Amino acid sequence: MTEDERAPSPEEMLRVIEEQSAATAKWLSGDPLLLYIPWGVAWLLGFTALFLHYGLDGRPYAPISQPQAVGVLLAGLIVAGAVAARGFVGMNRRVRGDSNARGAMFGYSWFAGFLLMNIICSRMSPHLPPQESGLMWGGSSLMLVAVLYMAGGAVFLAWPMFFFGVWIAGVNGLGVLLGAGWHALLSAVLLGGGFIAVGIVVRLRT
Q: Domain segments of the chain: what residues?
C-alpha cells in the first residue's frame, strides 16, 4: 500500500472536519467586507466633507458647500445600503425555511427605510436652518442604520452586529447633542474609520 492509499489518521480526519466546518460557517455568515466596509467608506467621506464645511467653531475649514457635502454623504449611504442589502440577501439565499424569509424581509427593509428617510428629510429640511437641516439628515440616517444593525443582530443571532448598532446609536446621539460640526467629526472618525478597521480585522480573523 502506497502512502497515498493509506487510511487517514484520526488527527487528519479531525483537521479536515474542522477546516470544512470553518469554511461552511464563513460561507453562511457572509463576507464582513460587505457588512462593514461600505458604511465605513460612506461615513468617512460624507461626514468628513460635512466637518470641513461646518468646522468646530462655526467657520468652514474648506470651500465645500453644504449641498455638496450632503450630496457626498447621501450618495455614499445609498451605495452602502444597496451593498449591505445585497450582502444580507445573498447570505440568506444559502439557508432555507423561515430563516430565508426573515433574511429577505430584513434585506428589503434597508431600501424601504432609506427611501422613507429621504422623503421625510426632504420634506422637513427646507423649514430648518442649514446646519440643523444637515444634522437632521446625518442623525436620521445613522439612527436608521443603528436600528437596522441591532435588528439584524436579533434576526441572525449575531451579537457583534447588535453591539455595532448600539455603538452607532451612542456616537450618533452624542454628536447630535454636541452640534453639527462635532457630529460630523465623531461620525467620520469613530464610525467611518472604525467600521473600515473592524471590517478588515473581522475579514482577516475569519
A: 33-205
